[in-house]
User: What shape does this take?
Amino acid sequence: MAHIKLQNIVKRYGDVTAVKDFNLEIEDKEFVVFLGPSGCGKTTTLRLIAGLEHPEEGDILIDGQRVNDLSPADRDIAFVFQFYALYPHLTVYGNIAFPLKAVKVERSEVDRRVKKVASILQISEMLDRKPSVLSGGEMQRVALGRAMVRQPKVYLLDEPMANLDAKLRVDTRAELKRLQHEFGATTIFVTHDQVEAMSLADRIAVIHQGVLQQIGTPHEIYNSPESLFVAGFMGMPTMNLLGAELGLREGHPALRLSHTDIWLPLPPQQQAKLTAAVERNGLVFGIRPEHIRAALEPGERRLAADVHLIEPLGSANILDLRLGTAAETQDPILLRVRTHPTFRAAVGEKVWFDFDPGQTRLFDRQTEQAIVL
Ligand code: ATP
Assistant: This one.
């Protein structure tokens, strides 16, 4: 059992506030990923939970017990850091067994647990080797094994796969997910890799500049971003975010994409929800590249645009369509579209596109928050 609650946590280093009024509840057995750009406060928050740092304000509760004043050793937490440090003079067996020997677990029990963990991690045949003859991925597994053998209430993993090559990362990711289900321990995993976050998490906590931006399932974070930051951070490529304003088109309320001739219909019931404040602050229109359909011919409801750039990715093409030109900067207003790899269009050619209105999002430009219509 381990339910974790962070209440109004603030952590400062001199003038830098690394964690700002952080509130989060993590359920027992949940796998939560802290995701955000470098320096956003992920590691600091993890270290606060571990007891390696102390908050200036707020409380940390594990299973309802305030642990602010407990030492790391008394919190029953195991952590694995990006730069794992194995004991070079001990074998793999000795490294994994180390935390158990330190708390004087009986020898036969140590042996049973080490062998079980080694079998799960598929390193049984390496138990007699020294770390110096292991690959990076194998060392990473030993570091994970050393954390797992303790069977703690909570695992804190700080970019534990950062040193693995791409293929091993994918394999280890799948294994880690399986293991977490098997062990059923509450896990917090830090990464700045959104694919890792999407594939591992029960819920993702997106953090930016020390502030928790959004917490939700991968589906919620990807499909219903609550802020411009989350919308602009998730996805490859990320969501198209274009300035927009309200107006009347042929007597009907409509949304015009700024510096373009593109008008989007806005049903009256939706317009009613766009308050005066939102209208004054300005709007940002969002749509993901995969929710836009490109075509080589005109058609009903299709809009025309010139192809500005094409990026062939193998499994898809990314097209940048030019919708207009910003008056002040003369920068092109671009819309990114993901197409099938067989979609053939040349730079400078005219193409047509339309999109599913159900997949669009609107944001208040000033508050940067989503407007739920
Ligand atoms: P990364 O992905 O690069 O590891 P992060 O999201 O984990 O980044 P943190 O390491 O938590 O970010 O750092 C958050 C902020 O706090 C940064 O601005 C960092 O420079 C600052 N910071 C972290 N630790 C210290 C420290 N010991 N002393 C001073 N500033 C610190």
In short: The mean pLDDT is 90. The first strand starts at residue 4 and ends at 13. The pocket of adenosine-5'-triphosphate is lined by residues 13, 16, 18, 36, 38-44, 192 (CB under 6 Å). The CA atoms of residues 112 and 149 lie 10 Å apart.
